[in-house]
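Pilot study result, target chain (183 residues):
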Amino acid sequence: MKKIIAFLACVLLMTACSKDSTISHDYRCFFVFDTSLHPLPCQLTGIVGNNGLFMKVEMSQRQGVVYLHTTRNYDNAVDDVRLSTAKENQVNYSLGANNCIIIGTSSYDFVLTCFDGQCANCMENDGGTNYPLTWTNSGLRLYCAKCKRSYDVNNGVVADGEPGRQLYRYQAALDGAVLRAWN
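Predicted structure:
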């Protein structure tokens, strides 16, 4: 009996520590955004808690200041968000395969979701990381101009075009006012 209990304890311990197999670890993702520092009309703050709203997020640095360039899914509106506090500038951001993530709340299951902003199939088949996705179908899909696939923004699966792998996915959470994505 002791051996059975010890075996079950080991199995439970191993499964509790296992990684979520749907989360990509091929490219580093680490993103932190404090919505309390950037109130509305900041587009990135506006997606929080709004099902079906997604944002394409890219980072740049100009004259030592970090900026987030965002593009909203349903109207392609863009916004540049200056991260100007000392706390924000201490973060070492990493936005996936080519400095771009897609983040928002799925209208299917109402879960905060984050995908890489590059076409997973082109990266896998052709190598490299420069296969940007663009909004299409009123922001319901992400389109790759190279392979002509469209992905459903709510779950990352191929919605149109040749069958293939789904988009690389990262963990996402809203902790109080802090929006995070990581792997």
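One observation from the pilot: DSSP finds four helices and 13 strands in the chain. A full batch analysis is planned for the follow-on phase.
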